[in-house]
Design goal:
heterodimer, A: about 300 residues, Rossmann fold, 10 helices, 7 strands, B: alpha/beta, 2 domains, seven-stranded mixed sheet, five-stranded mixed sheet, binds magnesium ion
């Protein structure tokens, strides 16, 4: 069995909310297909952030040049939960960093698309290795420090963390340092799906109240529905305004999302953190996506 | 016979601190991260000279290490220094995944290594750092033998591309190398030639090895070579195997645990290239304890006297094998 991947490049420009439906569906299709082909991996979290990723990469929010991955003027995106990487690979392929056909090689011997992001320079468009939870946010803080404190340029650093990930104490070391060093060029997005491997975050080890925590750590906090494109667009606009207005605080977007969003098999089920769909399940889910497309 | 004489004493951390501050003038990419102990590990010199490139993150070694990665991936040469115990073990996962897997240009300076930390006791006497870091792909490990060499090692590490660890001591030790001696990462220094036994040492034990070699010559008429193996990784396999062949017996000496350190690294080379009898002077799989540095060095056998005894022993084994 093999799936083919649509060879389509999405431009990076401001779009109307309705224009994202096709993009998020494309990302979701890629996630389902590549994981089913890999026979292993983590679909739930990746599917839940399709809207956040689509607007970030294709909504004119970040500056990048897919033909020049090491472009000095680029903004950066760090995906701290490395296991979400299938959605990032899909985005990078549709940015033009590498052919979409390469998505079929996910997790296979010799691939550039490792199960978790490999080191910088290994996969075009990947900024750093992540996979040991908690580390990506500190790397993002380091990048933001490099830009704001040392080089004094206007680059932005975006970082997405999980919510269970915030149980790692070093995340709060990162939060403290981002705040004390006034990193208003840092946008920390928390994917708040309230799911982790063992169950609901609030039951495994509660991280709540989240808004109050980040506020007390000195962040400007925006709460929104991460699966609502209109709200996501407005969230990034608010961060961009914070950055432009030099508010001297980092921004935290707490994005409520649903794991496995809109794929009925997986919708809001933490059991889909780390199980790939079978080929048959993927086909079923693709058909379901197709049907909602035609509504 | 000894061309190396002591010209006074200073700690290796001082050589590091001074050289880093100076290198900051020449290389504007250098950024230093402080984790509260800057006055002990002497990154305070850099902070005073280059405050605009010094970032304090407090007592948070995991964050410090990964922030260093973010800086390195943005084109900086990022130095992070703290006590060796907390700059390698507290942040071991960060070193493995974010520093080494990324092959990031991050430099870790582990101050206060070994038992010469003294009265603070075992928690602060890091004797396991080399063993831990030697298992990490992409990591380079340097252990300067005195203040003068620490300066050169610091510059070499700053200029080296990729992850590197420089191991430093708190206590003042003999300054016996010269300002114009060569220093090259990965190239061991043959300080004294010989044919009967070869001592391979690093850090403060190099000076003890030179004293031992002198005594072995005058008292026992043995011609003992001394190699300062300042780079533990990548180890200078060519020089070590050449001296295994030439001397036919080796003694290693290091202020580190017996498992995983210089002795292990040398044995790996010797076993593969030219097997000869070996004796290893190291911490015997136990924790240190409080005491004055000199007392502890004697207590645990990190002395010229012990090196002499082990050289006699390995020489006897060599003769018996023939
Ligand atoms: Mg979660």
């Amino acid at each position: 069995m093999s799936f083919s991947f649509n060879d389509i490049i999405f431009s990076n420009e401001q779009r109307k909310p309705d224009d994202y439906a096709a993009i998020t569906k494309e990302l979701k299709r890629d996630i389902l297909k590549s994981l089913a082909l890999a026979g292993s991996g983590h679909p739930g979290g990746a599917l839940g952030i399709a809207e956040l990723m689509a607007v970030l990469h294709f909504g004119g929010v970040m500056r990048y040049d897919a033909t020049n991955p090491t472009w000095k003027e680029r903004d950066r995106f760090i995906l701290s939960p490395g296991h979400y990487v299938p959605v990032l690979y899909s985005c990078l392929a549709h940015c033009g960093y590498f052919p979409t056909s390469e998505l079929a090689t996910l997790r296979k011997l010799g691939t550039r698309l490792q199960g978790h992001p490999a080191g910088f320079g290994f996969t075009p468009g990947i900024e750093t290795t992540t996979g040991s939870l908690g580390q990506g946010v500190s790397i993002a803080v380091g990048m933001a420090m490099s830009d704001k404190l040392i080089d004094k340029n206007s680059h932005k650093v975006f970082c997405l963390s999980g919510d269970g990930e915030l149980q790692e104490g070093s995340c709060w070391e990162a939060a403290m340092s981002a705040s004390m060093h006034h990193l208003d060029n840092l946008c920390w997005i928390v994917d708040n799906n309230d799911c982790q491997i063992d169950g609901r975050v609030k039951e495994v080890m509660s991280i709540y109240p989240l808004k109050e925590k980040f506020e007390s750590f000195g962040f400007a906090v925006i709460e929104l529905n991460g699966n609502d494109v209109e709200q996501v667009i407005s969230g990034y606009e608010q961060f961009n305004a914070n950055h432009k207005n030099k508010i001297n605080k980092p921004t935290c977007i707490i994005a409520k999302t649903i794991m496995g969003n809109e794929i009925s098999l997986m919708h809001d089920k933490y059991q889909w953190h780390g199980n790939p769909p079978t080929i048959a399940q993927a086909e079923e889910a693709l058909k379901e996506l197709e049907d909602t497309n035609n509504e | 016979m000894n061309k190396y004489i002591s010209k006074g004493t200073k700690p290796t951390r001082q050589g590091f601190g001074e050289a880093l501050a100076e290198q900051g003038d020449k290389d504007s990419r250098i950024v230093v991260i402080g984790a509260d102990v800057t006055g002990s590990v002497l990154t305070s010199f850099f902070a005073e000279k280059h405050p605009e490139r010094f970032i304090s993150v407090g007592i948070a070694e995991q964050n410090a290490t990964t922030i260093a990665v973010g800086l390195a991936l943005s084109g900086k040469v990022a130095f992070f220094s703290a006590y060796a115990a907390f700059a390698t073990f507290r942040n071991a996962d960060q070193l493995r995944v974010s520093v080494c897997y990324n092959n990031a240009n991050v430099k870790i300076a582990g101050g206060h290594s070994g038992v010469t930390v003294g009265p603070d006791g075992a928690t602060h006497q890091c004797l396991e750092d080399i063993g831990l870091l030697r298992t990490l792909p992409n990591m380079t490990i340097v252990v300067p033998c005195d203040y003068e060499q620490a300066k050169k090692a610091t510059i070499a590490v700053a200029e080296h591309i990729g992850p590197a660890y420089i191991r430093l001591s708190r206590a003042k030790t003999a300054i016996f190398t010269n300002a114009d001696d060569d220093f090259q990462i990965g190239k061991a220094d043959v300080l004294r030639d010989g044919t009967d036994v070869c001592i391979v040492a690093c850090g403060a034990l190099v000076w003890e090895a030179l004293q031992a070699a002198g005594e072995l010559e005058t008292k026992y008429n043995l011609n003992v070579a001394v190699i300062n193996c300042h780079t533990i990784k990548p180890i200078d396999a060519d020089t070590i195997s050449a001296y295994a062949k030439k001397c036919g017996a080796i003694v290693t000496a290091e202020e580190h645990q017996i498992y995983g350190g210089l002795g292990s690294a040398v044995a790996e080379v010797v076993v593969g290239k030219y097997p000869v009898p070996m004796e290893m002077i190291a911490m015997q799989d136990r924790f240190g304890e409080s005491g004055e540095p000199d007392e502890l060095m004697r207590h645990f056998g990190f002395t010229a006297e012990n090196i002499v005894n082990r050289c006699l022993l390995v020489h006897k084994r060599k003769i018996e094998q023939k």
